[in-house]
Design brief:
Blueprint (H helix, E strand, L loop, with lengths): L5 H24 L4 H16 L1 E5 L4 E4 H12 L1 H28 L6 H28 L6 H12 L8
Antiparallel strand pairs: 1-2
Helix pairs in contact: 1-2, 2-4, 3-4
Length: about 160
Amino acid sequence: MENMTDYQYAWMMYLIGAVGCSLAAWLLFRRAGRAWVHFVVITVMVILFTPYAVDAETMTMAPAVYTLLFGFMEGGFTAIKPVLKVMLGLWIGTLVLSLIYQLLTRNRGRAQPQAVHRQKHTKERHYDEEYAESARRASTRPLTREERIARDELMHEEPIRAVR
């Protein structure tokens, strides 16, 4: 890090901040649904991570969002058209890739809950059969499923002490 120039140091600090902002966007929207998370995080990342050449001969780069802002203040809309085209193209391209990824992996998360549902249903059936057998042995009227669940909940709770 001895040979790091101010330019490289500035980019490093900027990229660390951009990663933090991208992570914050993900944390804020992660419960909004997969499609919304992808849309928001991609939008934030395109805005923050897209570089643009300020000087094409020396390849001096700057974040495109800053180039967009300062270019608009200096020269108006015509000055920022190239930057805007790059950012929009990158944004649309990554959204298309994200959509393809989501379509290819859409059933991956649903297989597990069905297996859990089957397992739960099997346990309930086993529980019902076991209880019916014990009721037959005791020759009493079998309780309904709701009655059994209520009885089991009451049996597993702490005893209630009488208050004087």
